Amino acid sequence: MESVLPFAKPLASHGFTLTTPKIKTYGKRISTPCGKYGQDVAPAYYCSATQTIYWPQTSDDGREAYTIARLGYVGLVAHEFGHHLQATTGMLNEYGQKYYGTKKKSTRYSLSRRLELQAQCFEGVFLAVSARSIKLSARDRAQIRAWHSYTGDEDPPSDRLPDHGTSSAQLRWLNRGLDSADFGRCNTWKASSRSVK
C-alpha cells in the first residue's frame, strides 16, 4: 500500500495520528471484533477495532467488477483506507453513535450512504495524490470510473440494500476526490440529501 506519509502530516496538524492499516486475507469466512465477514457480501471490509482491512482470498476470475480495471485493486484498498481515515478522525465513531441511536431504517440508510460516499471520495483523493507512484493514466481513470458506474444500490443483486449510494452518486463523489485531490471536498455529512442518494 502507498505510504500514509502524504496524509499523515496534514492530519497531525489537526491533532490526529495516522497509522498504516493492516491487511489480512481470509478464506470463506472470518470472525473479527466488527463481526463475521464472508466473500458473498462485499469484496473487502475495514474493521476499526483492529485497524485492519480484511480481504478475501479469491481467484482473479473476473467475478469481482474491480478486476476490469488495472488499478481496481488499488481503488478498492483506497476505499477501505478511506474508512481508516474516518476512524482515525473520529467520524466513524460519530457515525456509529448516530446509526445505533436510531431505529429508523431510512435514517440508518442515509447515514450509511454518507459514510460510504465519503470513503468513495477519499478513494479518489488517494488515487490522485498517489498518481505518480501508481502511474495513474487517463485510461486508468476511465477504467475506475467504468467500474464504479455499475456498483450502485440500484444495480444487481436484487437484495442489495440502499446503503452505499447509486452509481451516479458514487461516481460524483469519486470524481470530486479524483479531480480535486482534496479531502476537504469530501464532506458528505454537510451535503444535501439529494447528492447522497
User: How many beta-strand segments?
Assistant: 5
The residue ranges in which pLDDT falls below 50 over 5 or more consecutive positions are none
> So what's the overall shape?
globular
Order of strands across the main sheet = 1-5-4
Mean pLDDT: 90
CA radius of gyration: 16 Å
Helix/strand-derived class? mainly alpha
- DSSP helix fraction: 40-55%
Order of helices and strands: HEEEEEHHHHHH
First-last Cα distance? 30 Å
How much β-strand is present in the residues?
5-15%
Number of helices: 7
Largest sheet composition: 3 strands, mixed
Number of domains: 1
Question: Could you please describe the fold and organization of this structure?
Answer:
By secondary structure, this protein is mostly helical. The chain has one domain. It has 7 helices and 5 strands, in the order αβββββαααααα. It has helices spanning 5-12, 72-88, 91-100, 105-129, 131-134, 138-148, 167-180, and strands at 22-26, 29-32, 35-38, 45-47, 52-56. The strands form 2 sheets. A 3-stranded mixed sheet has the order 1-5-4, with helices on one face. A hairpin with a 4-residue loop joins strand 4 and strand 5 (52-56). The chain is globular.
